Amino acid sequence: PATPIDTDALVIGAGPVGLFQAFQLGLLGLSAQVVDVLPQAGGQCVALYADKPIYDIPGVPVCTGRELAERLLQQIAPFRHGLHVGHEVQTLRPLDDGRFAVGTGAGPQFLARSVFIAAGVGAFTPRRIKVAGLEAHEQRQVFHHPDDLAPFAGQRVLVVGGDEAALLRAATLAELPQTTEVTLLHRRDQFSAEAGLLARVAALRADGRLRVCIGQITAAQTQGDRLASVTVLDAEGVETQQALDVLIVCQGLSPRLGPLADWGLALERKLLPVDVATFETAQPGVYAVGDINTYPGKKKLIVCGFHEATLAAHAAHDRLRPQERGPLLYTTSSPLLHRRLGLA
Ligand code: FAD
């Protein structure tokens, strides 16, 4: 296993609240490492509504989910915290010396003096097609929301899904110069995406470059060690076999509380109860901020998470560096904060 990274704070989740948590920790002079299972930072803002506008961030009349994530990343850049995307935190274990051993399976390992759980509604994982025999072909012939489509050129590709993510991939593949046999499979002949993309798909469909099939996969057939075809059941109850080289699944992401439930922390309806003065859980040194926590009056809003992260950072700082306790410093006027922000 990799040598553990030593850090003052380990932040689980790079959603808006986890990112702002890292900012507040940095201001207080604490080092932090941020981990997220998704391939990018931004949590729900990027995974669920990247291009939709948000109107209730203080001082920002409007920005999209993606823009908010970009600005938060820009804001934490001066602190040079570590950001580890594509890794799920699987284990969290208190050690005798007061630190926590945090593990991500085969990925990075951490030794942290405090832990901030900003896990939102849980680790986002792609919704899979629940049909026996598909899992064995993942990453070889079965892909979930792949970003790079170039390797699939010239092949027989079945794209499953009915939203923006599925349509964009199906259209991009159908437009490749190499003849790529693309079929878009969805439960209903009804698709949700912005008008331009819908028109693009309709044109490719009319041209015969993109085949649309209505139905769902009910079985998979393997030949040797390859996925050869799937059985598709249509709305009339008729089953057909669809031969393929590649299966691209875009059925959205669903949050999974996952390993968090095994860390010995008290949960209340899948949420972590916290002390509202410190946002500490019942486990000293472990804080919970954002959508994952619960307390009287809790509102699952970004602005509330920002407040929670601020108080949690101060609580952790007081606990880890009691000798540094002093008056509250303002970013406007404190030379120390300016130095930490890389301004002086
Ligand atoms: P999240 O954004 O959920 O991020 C948590 C992150 O933790 C995820 O990326 C997840 O993958 C990761 N994670 C979880 N477990 C693990 C693990 N074990 N290992 C590694 N990573 C893990 N709020 C507003 O204030 N204003 C709005 O206008 C608004 N609009 C919204 C619109 C929609 C459609 C939705 C769905 C929500 C909206 N919200 C809005 C709510 C807002 O998005 C959430 O309150 C906010 O995202 C919570 O931030 P978070 O950082 O706590 O959690």
TrEMBL record:
EC class name: oxidoreductase
One term of GO molecular function: NADP binding
Cofactor note: Binds 1 FAD per subunit.
Keyword Transcription: no
SUPFAM superfamilies, alphabetized: FAD/NAD(P)-binding domain
Reactions the enzyme catalyzes: 2 reduced [2Fe-2S]-[ferredoxin] + NADP(+) + H(+) = 2 oxidized [2Fe-2S]-[ferredoxin] + NADPH
Protein name, as recorded: Ferredoxin--NADP reductase
Native species: Sphaerotilus montanus
UniProt lineage: Bacteria, Pseudomonadati, Pseudomonadota, Betaproteobacteria, Burkholderiales
